[in-house]
Amino acid sequence: MSDGSSEGGGGGTRRPRRPFGTPPFPGPGQRQPLLAGSAPLHLRTSEMTRRTLEELSRRRRERSERRRAAALISVLALLGGTVRVATGAYGGSGGGTGGPKGMLRGPGEGSGSGVEDGGGDDASALASASSDNAAVAAEAARPLPAHLEALRTFHDVGDPLLPTSVPFFFHVPRSGGMALQQIFGQCLGRVQATQAGAGDGHGHDPALAVVVGVDGLPYVNVDASNVPGLDRAARLGLGGSGLADVVTSSYLREAGALFDPGHRGRAFTVLRHPLERAVSTYHYRTRGDQADLSPDLTLQAYAQGGDIENNWLTRYLTGRVEGHLTTEDLEAAMEVLETKFLIGLLEDGSESMHRILKYTGWELDGDSEARARQEECISTYLMDGTNVGPVEYSLPRKGTQAYAMISWQIKYDLKLYSFAQEIYEKQTRQWGSKGRKREQREREREKAGK
């Protein structure tokens, strides 16, 4: 995959690719918000940063309270529905009308099958509904650690895909995310909720709608790339609207407010080796289309100064965007990845795309010619290996000062990435391609034979 500025296209055409510029990266003349790491291993603070963090904390508390209240209301409504079904099924003729007693509806379902008078069928349906409601109630009441509480409205990775599930792409900057978004729109024709939908003033529309972006692709009229945009999308009910085929944002925890127990987010991400990502970020910020740092800044000076990101992935998975990180934070980030995410790897782009399609339930066109065009479009944007951008560069060699300083700034992300590779291997059993599953079985047989 590539998040550079090379060209690609879909449906037999080629369009210029938009330069990478998705927040949290700043535009020209802007400072990097909440991302800069400096020795001794904590992010710099300022009065503006303090106020921002307080505001984010306040919003998280409010969202947590709203989620708890919504979950409680949902549980009470479901239990009340069970009582009404029980009363209708076993409480008499209700006026002698006879016939079906009503409809049983499970969580997130628009309708159910009719339940006719008759003890056996009624009892079975009632028992099933009661079991489902009890499961929802248990899930809503289940205590979670703090790092998972904000993600309660996301599916666990092992949950089945439901018609009400909303695919959520956690965009890690400089990890092929722009290529993936082009695949979603250009190749697959999916309606996206990302920053592009707020263009031409649509970010202030009073109601949700699908609009056409400047690139001719369909978007929901929200901006999911920043916290105010996510707040607006949550107020307008994006998660339950059914308008977005996929939501894309770098703000995982804040995006939890978009969803509810009946419309859960189904999260996936694509990760890149942290050292490669850090060097790519340096070149983008010093020589890219939206560079905000001096081109004379050396990689070593960048790694030593306060502009380099400090363990971005660990921080944004746990919400610890400020202050020192500990091994407990790393363990929390590991649990979030393992529990909530289908993992993709930039270095294994084609296989990762196969898994994403399977995980989201998206299928290519049934028509052979249209399918061939989609496959060609996807292959245009996929590239196994490191990103290809407008600037050619090499990675610092192990043993150099630049390598050591960057590695220190990303030491938790390095461990997290190694853990993500292990998860990726484990997820092969359920989500991998046939070829990859076969390779895994062969390796396991060889290992067992030794």
Summarize the structure.
The chain has helices spanning 47-90, 119-141, 146-149, 177-187, 227-235, 238-241, 252-255, 274-287, 299-304, 312-318, 327-340, 349-360, 368-381, 401-409, 411-431, 434-449; strands spanning 37-38, 42-43, 166-170, 192-193, 210-212, 218-220, 246-249, 265-271, 342-345.
Can you tag this structure with a few keywords?
450 residues; alpha/beta; Rossmann fold; 2 domains; 9 strands; disordered N terminus
Rg value: 24 Å
Specify the overall morphology: globular
Number of helices: 16
Secondary-structure element sequence? EEHHHEHEEEHHEHEHHHHEHHHHH
Task: Indicate the low-confidence ranges by residue numbers.
Answer: 2-50, 81-122
Strand content bin: 5-15%
Strand order of the largest sheet: 4-7-3-8-9
Structural class: alpha/beta
Description:
- This protein is α/β, with parallel strands linked by helices and 450 residues long.
- The protein folds into 2 domains: 37-45 and 146-449, Rossmann fold (3-Layer(aba) Sandwich), CATH 3.40.50; 68-141, no CATH class.
- The chain is 47% helix and 7% strand.
- The protein contains 16 helices and 9 strands.
- It has helices spanning 47-90, 119-141, 146-149, 177-187, 227-235, 238-241, 252-255, 274-287, 299-304, 312-318, 327-340, 349-360, 368-381, 401-409, 411-431, 434-449, and strands at residues 37-38, 42-43, 166-170, 192-193, 210-212, 218-220, 246-249, 265-271, 342-345.
- Strands 4-7-3-8-9 form a 5-stranded parallel β-sheet, with helices on both faces. Strands 1-2 form a two-stranded antiparallel sheet. Strands 5-6 form a two-stranded antiparallel sheet.
- A hairpin with a 5-residue loop joins strand 5 and strand 6.
- Helix 1 packs antiparallel against helix 2 (119-141), helix 4 runs antiparallel to helix 13 and helix 11 packs parallel to helix 15.
- The longest helix has 44 residues, at 47-90.
- The radius of gyration is 24 Å and the shape is globular.
- The two termini are 37 Å apart.
- The model is unreliable at 2-50 and 81-122 (pLDDT under 50).
